[in-house]
């Protein structure tokens, strides 16, 4: 019984995109591991960018810095 956890930042992933991720992850388990799709569970966890760090800082801060840099470059 596969349990698949997909974590993404909460930045506007659409319902259609979520359905595609669920279908794709399930299909991968069927194709690669010959798992029963009815016994495969997929959970999508949307994480606030304040709670997701990369390179020693929160993604929120990184995005703000990148936006400011792009704004200054115009």
TrEMBL record:
<dbReference type="Pfam" id="PF01361">
    <property type="entry name" value="Tautomerase"/>
</dbReference>
<feature type="region of interest" description="Disordered">
    <location>
        <begin position="53"/>
        <end position="74"/>
    </location>
</feature>
<dbReference type="InterPro" id="IPR014347">
    <property type="entry name" value="Tautomerase/MIF_sf"/>
</dbReference>
<feature type="domain" description="4-oxalocrotonate tautomerase-like">
    <location>
        <begin position="2"/>
        <end position="60"/>
    </location>
</feature>
<protein>
    <recommendedName>
        <fullName>Tautomerase</fullName>
        <ecNumber>5.3.2.-</ecNumber>
    </recommendedName>
</protein>
<feature type="active site" description="Proton acceptor; via imino nitrogen">
    <location>
        <position position="2"/>
    </location>
</feature>
<keyword id="KW-0413">Isomerase</keyword>
<feature type="compositionally biased region" description="Basic and acidic residues">
    <location>
        <begin position="65"/>
        <end position="74"/>
    </location>
</feature>
<dbReference type="InterPro" id="IPR004370">
    <property type="entry name" value="4-OT-like_dom"/>
</dbReference>
<dbReference type="GO" id="GO:0016853">
    <property type="term" value="F:isomerase activity"/>
</dbReference>
<dbReference type="InterPro" id="IPR018191">
    <property type="entry name" value="4-OT"/>
</dbReference>
<comment type="similarity">
    <text>Belongs to the 4-oxalocrotonate tautomerase family.</text>
</comment>
